[in-house]
Structure formats: structure tokens, C-alpha cells
């Protein structure tokens, strides 16, 4: 389990806010998943509460450990409801390292179709760069095959990129530097592997 933390802001009684973490697919629809190493037990929704100061914490199963017929999974964390009754959701990918992780560092943008369609990308923010110096590096892991990778390296410059596929081949790809913090890599067919920014 990995600990995820957050804080509700501006509420007089945050401990009364309805909070829940639910497993969803990359389009935000509910997903059923299980962890093979735990005797096939299903990953269940978790309800929890914030403290009087608005701080909350929840232990979640890392997404890489979850197998699902829906493909890749995310966690949807509900932090109350809007006046219309619609839930206030934050979608996160939970890493295997125990944490604690602040919810904002794990936040992702939803795709418009499941990753199984060949090329759908979820935007995953990378960790902060090291002040843009030439010696700083970042490694992006693309576990689900995709024809477009968005590498949020946060290095503050246009780094050199090398791509190695999951079967160990060094490949050439079309790289576009969308900004000094984001590189977009495209392939003719979906590929999984790693991209090293240096």
C-alpha cells in the first residue's frame, strides 16, 4: 500500500466532507481490478475522512500492481461534491514507493479512450528538474504501449532523448519539444519502454 495525503481548503467542517477513493479506467469509468500477488482479491473502494484541520490521508494499492480487464487503471479521489451534486474528483496514479505522496504530485489528466486502442496517452507530470543544469537527467517509463509519449521532464531546457523499447532495443523516434519542460515522442506503432532525458 502507498500513502497519499492532501488537504481540503476553505471548509468550516472538513471532517464532514464525503471522501472516497475508487479504481477507474483511463476515461474515468469505474473499473474492477485485482492484485495477483494477494490471492486475486478485488481492489475495493475506500471511504475516509479529513481531520478538523482539513488534512487527509489514505492507503491505496499502487496502480502497477493492479490487473484489470479495463486495461490501465487510475484512482479517482472524491473530495466532496459541488452544489450541483457532481463529485469533486482528482485522478491520480499511485506509485509503488510507500510515500507519503501529496495528491498534487500524483495528479494526471484523463485520456479520451482506453489505452488498449493503441496510442492513447495519459499526461503524467514528471518530478521537478534540477534547476535546468546540464548535468540533470530524467527517465520516463512508458509501461503501456502507446504511439505518443508525453515526457514531462521539468528540466527547464531542451534535453537530448534516447529511447529504449521494453525488449531492450535502442530506437529512433520523432521528438518534439513542446516546451522546456515537456517533450512529445511519436512512433508509427504503439511502443513501451523508457526515454532518458539528459
Notes on the structure:
The longest helix is centred in the middle third of the chain and has 4 residues, at 103-106. The protein starts with a strand and ends with a strand. A hairpin with a 2-residue loop joins strand 13 and strand 14 (182-197). The protein is globular. The chain contains one helix and 14 strands. The strands form four sheets. Strands 10, 11, 12, 13 and 14 form a five-stranded antiparallel sheet that branches. A four-stranded antiparallel sheet has the order 4-2-7-8. It has a three-stranded mixed sheet with strand order 5-1-9. The chain has 198 residues and is mainly β. It has one helix spanning 103-106, and strands spanning 2-7, 19-25, 33-34, 46-48, 55-60, 67-68, 73-81, 87-92, 101-102, 138-152, 161-165, 170-171, 174-179, 182-197.
Summarize the entry for a quick read.
Helix content is 2%, strand content 44%. It has 198 residues and is an all-beta fold.
Which features does this protein show?
198 residues; mainly beta; five-stranded antiparallel β-sheet; four-stranded antiparallel β-sheet; 1 helix
Share in helix: under 10%
Spans of at least 5 consecutive residues with low confidence = 115-121, 125-132
* Percentage of β-strand residues: 35-45%
Q: What string, H for helix and E for strand, traces the elements in order?
A: EEEEEEEEEHEEEEE
Mean pLDDT across all residues, rounded? 80
Radius of gyration: 18 Å
The largest β sheet comes out as:
5 strands, antiparallel
The coarse silhouette is globular
The class by helix and strand makeup works out as mainly beta
Report the end-to-end length measured between terminal Cα atoms.
32 Å
Number of strands: 14
Question: How many helices does DSSP assign?
Answer: 1
